[in-house]
Amino acid sequence: MASYSYDADGRRVSMTTSAGTTRFFYDGTSTRVLYETNASGTLLARYIYGPNNQLLAMIRSGVTYWH
Q1: What is the CB neighbour count within 10 angstroms for residue 34?
Q2: Of 1, 3, 6, 26, which sees the most CB atoms within 10 A?
Q3: Residue-wise pLDDT tens digits, 44-59
Q4: Which pLDDT value is given to residue 42?
């Protein structure tokens, strides 16, 4: 089971599961997630976007996943 927290703009800012808490960080006021960290601030994932705001890739644990 997971619990979620949202900011005033309705964006998910954290997710907590039995494995721990993940925090989501956004590009200003947009809905584009730039990166995720754990509760200690360790980087878990980065997101790369194209010129039209489309998601191009996610980098997690040193592996790049192209979309």
Answers
A1: 15
A2: 26
A3: 999 999 999 999 999 9
A4: 98
